[in-house]
Amino acid sequence: MKKIFFLAILVVIQASVAFGDEVELGLTGSASDQIKASTRQVILAGADSGSVIDVTRVMLQNNFKTAQILRAHEIMTKMHRAGLPLQPIVNKLFEGIAKHVPPATILNAMDAVRSRYEFAFSKAGLRYQSGSQLRTG
Length: 137
What we know:
By secondary structure, this protein is mainly alpha-helical. The protein has helices spanning 2-19, 22-26, 33-44, 49-61, 66-81, 87-98, 103-124; strands at residues 126-129, 133-136. A two-stranded antiparallel ribbon has the order 1-2. Helix 3 (33-44) runs antiparallel to helix 4 (49-61), helix 5 (66-81) packs parallel to helix 7 (103-124) and helix 6 runs antiparallel to helix 7 (103-124).
């Protein structure tokens, strides 16, 4: 009985390792351990994992430095924790990349958008909830 139990646990452990986590799969080989850890932190904060991984992959493809990616993750985490939608700062990132704006300038613009949304939502007494619905309070 102990052997069957041990084998069952071994199979479960190997299956979980074989599938890996979505960050490993989404950022295969192109990201440092520090970037992967930061990506996981943003996801653990509650942000949509697919969006965070996609944004990180795009930044890596466009030669953002590790420190710049970490700063983008920090901005995303602040945005999410403030109860604000991530899409405006993601749009700002993509806009900057499309216009070939330097990464440092893109990050400053993302932070400015975050700040504006934080101010506007606080003045309006609104809080964003996924599904594009606004709630008072």
